[in-house]
Amino acid sequence: MYSNRFLLKLLVRKEIKVRYRGSVLGLLWSYVKPLMQFLIYFVALGIFLNLQHGTPNYSIYLFAGIVFVNFFTESLGNATRSILDNRDLIRKIYLPRELFPVATVLVSAAHFLPQLAVLVGACLLAGWQPSLIQLLMVIVAFIMVAILATGLGLLFGAANVYFRDSENIVDMILMVVTWASPVLYIWTMVQRVMGPWYWVYQMNPLTVGVEIFHWAFWYPTLTADQIGLAPLPPDLLGFWLPVAIAISVAILFLGQSVFRKLSIHFAQEL
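== Transport permease protein ==
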């Protein structure tokens, strides 16, 4: 991949230009979509269902989760469609097919950065004082979910060439993702319901990533008494993070293996 970095750079530029061609707001859509999501969830859950009453600084808690999950959903959704969207280019010239899903993940990362800047600004207004290890874990969590999205993007992107139902399957997965991770609610609610089966919930790398984002952005805005209301999940860094990284890397290798086998006949199938 490193040897093809120039081609990858060109594809990223192309993706950004194509996506915002004819758009008035352009890159500002990176702010509009998460802001609308935040307002809808905050009003529906924070105010109507009163979740903000038992969750201090619920607005920061909610936005931190939304920003993180949005990166994953955008990456996976676009990576799944990347081969079909570039069918004309694939038919005409040969270049490593893996570059297309990877380019879409990098474009999603470019959209993620403005949202992250807004999150940091909101946290600073709330008295955010993170430690160095918390900032480092943010980078680790971001890389982990990028690996996960790339692996799944390669897998479903290749399958989508042969089975167009793959895109619908991914759409259903993305519809569930926000609710399958502690974005809108506290993890302790899940633990109370699932009991000894809580470990199944924690096996989701996205769950671990969201919890780390909350630990890095939300926890430093709380007082000691408020942290007691929502303690950090046990063994988050010592056990669950390594497990999540291992699962993400395994999915990347699986996706890459399937992609290589199926990509041989992409041009014919397209």
